[in-house]
Design goal:
Blueprint: E1 16-21, E2 27-31, E3 40-42, H1 52-63, H2 68-75, H3 79-88
Antiparallel strand pairs: 1-2, 2-3
Helix pairs in contact: 1-2, 2-3
């Protein structure tokens, strides 16, 4: 039997415990590192819109002038996911 260590995708900590299951039956984990920005995560997301790399690409494409539907088509995710991500992303103001 081989045991794979579970690492937090945000901080890389090994201090991770099981934290129930998602509605789809996937194992959910909780990072117990106090400084970690993410408290729960799933190791293997099925929907691409949840991946941190895809979220970063959404922001980069928006800054380069790509539209919502174009971004959704290229990344193979829902336009609603693109809109929600862009609503959550706040840009720094000029005075700061």
């Amino acid at each position: 039997m081989v045991l794979e260590p579970v690492l937090c995708p945000s901080c890389g900590s090994k201090d991770v415990v099981k934290h129930g299951q998602s509605q789809a039956g996937r194992q959910r984990y909780k990072c117990r590192n106090a400084e970690c920005s993410r408290c729960t995560f799933i190791r293997d997301y099925r929907y691409r819109g949840y991946l941190p790399e895809v979220k970063q690409q959404i922001v980069e494409m928006a800054l380069n002038g790509s539209g919502i539907r174009d971004t959704a088509r290229v990344l193979r995710i829902s336009p609603t996911t693109v809109i929600e991500k862009l609503k959550k992303k706040s840009l720094p103001e000029d005075g700061e």
